[in-house]
Amino acid sequence: MLTYALRRLLLAIPTLLFISLVIFLLLELSPGDPLGDVPMTVPPDVKEKMREALGLGQAWYIRYVLWLKQFFWVEPMHWFDQAFGTSVVAGQQRIISFQSRSPVFDVIAQRIPQTLIVVGFSYLIGVLIAIPIGIVSAYKQYSWFDQLGTFVSMVGFSMPTFFTGVVLIIVFAVNLGWFPSVYDTTLRVTDWASFKAQARQMVMPVTVLALYNAAQISRFMRASMLDNLRQDYVRTARAKGLTEKTVVLKHVLRNSLIPVVTVIALGLPAVFGGAIITEQVFQVNGLGQLLISAIHANDIPMVLTLTFIFAILIVVFTLIADLLYGVLDPRIRYD
Amino acid sequence: MTDPATDPARNRAQLIRETASNAAAPGAEMLPPDSPVVAAPLNETPATRSQWADVWRQFSHHRGAMVALVLFVLIILFVTVGPYLWTVDATFVNIRARNQGLSAAHPLGTDQLGRDMLARLMAGGRVSIAVGLTAMIIAVTLGSLIGILAGYFRRLDAPLSRLTELFLALPLLPLLLLMVTLFREPLSQSLGTGTGTFLLIVTAIGATSWMQAARIVRGDVLGLKEREFILAARSIGTPNTRMVMRHILPNVLSPIMVAATLGIATAIITESALSFLGLGFPPDFPTWGRLLYDAIPQMQMYPSRVILPGALISLTVLTVNYIGDGLRDAMDPRIRGR
Fold first, then answer.
1. pLDDT tens across A61-110, in order?
2. How many other C-beta atoms can be found within 10 angstroms of the C-beta atom of residue B243?
3. Is B210 helix (H, G, I), strand (E, B) or coil?
4. Which residues contact A276 (CB under 8 A, 6 or more apart)?
5. Rounded distance, CA B173 to CA A31, Å?
6. DSSP letters of A126-171?
7. Can you state the angle between helices A121-139 and A144-158, rounded to 10 degrees?
8. Cα–Cα distance, B134 to B323 (Å, whole number)
9. Per DSSP, what are the bridge partners of residue B110?
10. How far apart are CA A296 and CA A194, in angstroms?
């Protein structure tokens, strides 16, 4: 198990390096110019100096290695310095956004809470809805509840989040006026009233994302429950006189959760990055929106760093899901 | 020369027929066909049902899938035949007739430039569905090719599986956004706005969504390779190309078809998501996602303009998903009801 984990970790390093190179080269190939917005009246030599100042003077491989060094050494050590008051990387250049001229990681740190609160909460709610629905659907297969559940999950799965989001805005924000249509990120929760305002503005984005996630996870849950309900050990458990509740909620549920837990883990990277569209619909000022605005502004360091962080999250959570599967299911052996 | 796969399948088919002619008709349908595809049986008696007739019979019992199929055909007719019946130009700007409601001249009203919504929905749907189909064809061709190569040739397995894993680790939506933003301008300049963007979006979606198909096909090919009919074919000296085309490919066709159906749905959603983020087709080139995006600023006044394209996207994706579900059930009866 441990050797397997170590091997996978070692294997993840070249994968991540390759992905970073792909993203870097893709950006390098781009015809867009970060100085494209600079007025034509600026003389060419000044423009050349601006280019130098942005670090665009050198060849691409030098910049790539420099970026790697900044990402894997300077940035972590910077946070280390801040935390412990040391000065390991004092005075070394951090990754700077073209757009705001501030360190990329500071901007990301500002945006993470919004994304985590809205998207993370909706994922949690989605999982909490999906699991009971999956259990009941599988236990009463082909009942009206199952038929309805399958249909609703099919619909939830098929409606793109930008459509459900816009429909909710039209119905609940425009026509009924119950919830605000734009997420206000400057709101600070200090007392009961602001807490209520925060809860109200979270309702719609959370509903949209929770519906979408619940639709997917409940289908997995149902399939997994159906698999297990037909197993011999279920018959044995019933035959020795256990109550139906114990059989379903202890024996079957625990075994059915194994694959579902890995599916949930695999979906987690999307919590950070994949909710780009929902954040755009409700103007949530999170990581997804940061990425879109950076793409529009040709802010190469920001796009590179953000995309690479998403890639790291995907690789890490895939690894976690695989290891979790082995921990939860002793039949899986990795050696 | 008979395909070795034919005989057991024929026996099974006869068995099914005999059982079906007896009393227990509903139970007999549950029997799984032994071999997924009977490849061109030469000396077949006319009474033997073909595999595809079986699949169709199973499929037609799936009520949701049948309703979905009818709806999907209607949508296809709406976007292909529709423009011949409703001949208003989708890009004709009539600024005096802007923001109109429902009327005889404009059954679904007009948009902020006086363009007819019905015609725009038809034109947009044609682009959206064309993108979905083409991207799916690219993804499935790529996926099956890589899957078959990885599963069949042991030497290629490790590098190709690594490649698949690598692609699965890529953050796809951000990369798609990047690819489209970076290459939209130069491609539209060299190939024309419509074609350039179409090719870019279709290739980008196709190149980032082949992995699931490749994994499924690889797994199936690995299993098939151990079967006796492959051994028999090899023992009479079948060359590799023939082996793949004649014996492997027909037998992995059912997972490929299911992956293809579901691929259309993802491709349509991805395209409309790109359009929704303003990174898809140019404004004068209507697609359902683009129509929705264009209508957002005025959704308080004219909600129908947002809801109509959105509902069409959802309906198309829903029907395609149901058809995929029905196909999967029809082709693999072991997993029916999941």
1. 888 888 888 888 777 777 777 777 777 766 677 777 777 778 888 888 88
2. 16
3. coil
4. A288, A289, A291, A292, B173, B174, B177, B277
5. 20
6. HHHHHHHHHHHHHHTTTSHHHHHHHHHHHHHHHS-HHHHHHHHIII
7. 150
8. 18
9. B116
10. 33
**Residue B171 near residue B208, CB atoms below 8 Å:** no
A61 burial class (0-12, 13-18, 19+ CB within 10 angstroms)? exposed
With a CB cutoff of 8 Å and minimum separation 6, the contacts of A311 are A16, A19, A20, A23, B169, B170, B171
Cβ pairs bridging A and B (under 8 Å) = 128
Report d(CA B5, CA B227) in Å as an integer.
10
The DSSP 8-state label assigned to residue B262 in this structure reads: H
**Which pair of tokens denotes residue B202?**
């279709």
Q: Of the candidates B174, B186, B321, which has its C-beta nearest A310's C-beta?
A: B174
Domains of chain A by start residue, with CATH: 2-83 (no CATH), 111-304+312-328 (1.10.3720.10)
Q: Between these two residues, A227 and B299, which has the higher pLDDT value?
A: A227
Upper half-sphere CA count for residue B189 (Cβ side, 13 Å): 6
Specify which residues B116 forms β-bridges with.
Answer: B110
ipTM of the complex: 0.81
User: From the list B273, B299, B318, which residue is nearest A158 (CB)?
Assistant: B318
CB contact under 8 A, A32 and B181: yes
Which member of B171, B178, B186 has the closest CB to residue A314?
B171
Q: Please name which of B259, B4, B33, B237 lies closest in space to residue B147, comparing C-alpha atoms.
A: B259
Nearest CA to A212 out of A278, A260, A293 is that of A278
**For the whole model, what pTM was predicted?**
0.80
Query: Could you give the CA distance from residue B178 to residue B172 in angstroms, rounded to a whole number?
Result: 10
B247 near B229, Cβ under 8 Å? yes
CA B301 to chain CA centroid, Å, is 36
All residues of chain A having their beta carbon less than 8 Å from the beta carbon of residue B322 are 154
Q: Say whether A296 and B186 touch across the interface (CB within 8 A).
A: no
Please, what sign has the CA dihedral across residues B27, B31, B37, B38?
Answer: negative
What is the DSSP-derived secondary structure letter of residue B35?
S
Give the distance from CA B58 to its chain's centroid: 20
State the DSSP H helix or E strand holding residue B131, giving kind and residue range, or none if neither.
Answer: helix B117-152
Q: Which residue has the tokens 């087709």?
A: B281
| pLDDT tens readout for residues A293-326 | 888 887 888 888 888 888 888 888 888 888 888 8
B39-68 pLDDT per residue, tens: 555 554 555 667 777 778 878 887 888 888
Helix, strand, or coil (residue B116): strand
Closest CA to B144 of B267, B265, B255: B255
In terms of phi and psi (left: phi > 0; alpha: psi -120 to 50; beta: otherwise), the region of A55 is: left
Nearest CA in chain A to B170: A311
